[in-house]
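User: Fold this one for me? It's Short-chain dehydrogenase.
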Amino acid sequence: MGKLENRIALVTGGGSGLGKQDCMQLAAEGAHVYVTDIDENAAKAVADAIGDTAVAMKHDVSSRSDWEAVFARIAADHGKLDILVNNAGIVVVADPEETTDEQFDRTMDIMCKGVFLGCKLGLPLLSKSENGSIINMCSTASHQGFPPFFAYSAAKGAVRSMSKSLAIHCQDKGYKVRCNTLHPSAIETPMIQGAMGRPGEEQAVDSGVLPAGAIGAPSDVASLIVFLCSDDARFLTGGEYLIDNGAYIRP
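Assistant: Here's what I get for Short-chain dehydrogenase.
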């Protein structure tokens, strides 16, 4: 029996990269997974790979009506939600002077407003869980200065703060819902491949303990998500977890 047997999970941006791996590992631990993505075909491919315990839906996280449709489907199917992983994101490579208004607004719509909508509209279903878990994906960019990822850093910093307030709100309301943030450094995903100028060129990630400066694997993130969503993490809320192989603390 898996750690997440019969839990109901929603992963945004689940069609590729970190979201895809999250879906696979949550399902492997027994969760029923809703795979949502702006790319409906990618979401369907992941759901098909998982099997009968997965549902794919097209989902623009910046759209309130899309969120309402997703939660309406989950409510009709199960009447509750146990796990929300706000993973969907984009990255625009532009420093503070180069970033356009349109780039900044689009980045914030997806990764800040999108997280806000997911949490706000999802709480009525999450509050029915006996051990609800919200995982908001952030980045080491919320802790350090990354001028080329200016808008991305701004959005992740907002989510970092918003998540702490949400964790306390759930406690104050008596909801059995925890909220934590994950802050990966470079993980081998299509987003990183594009940011590093090698779109579509996947590099193998070594097994075992990795040397300084190494890129991590999606499973390094997904494994922590599984733990934080399980009963083993019942005392963990409002936390921020760096998944960076020590990069942040390196002099």
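One thing worth pointing out: Residues 131 and 176 are 5 Å apart (CA to CA).
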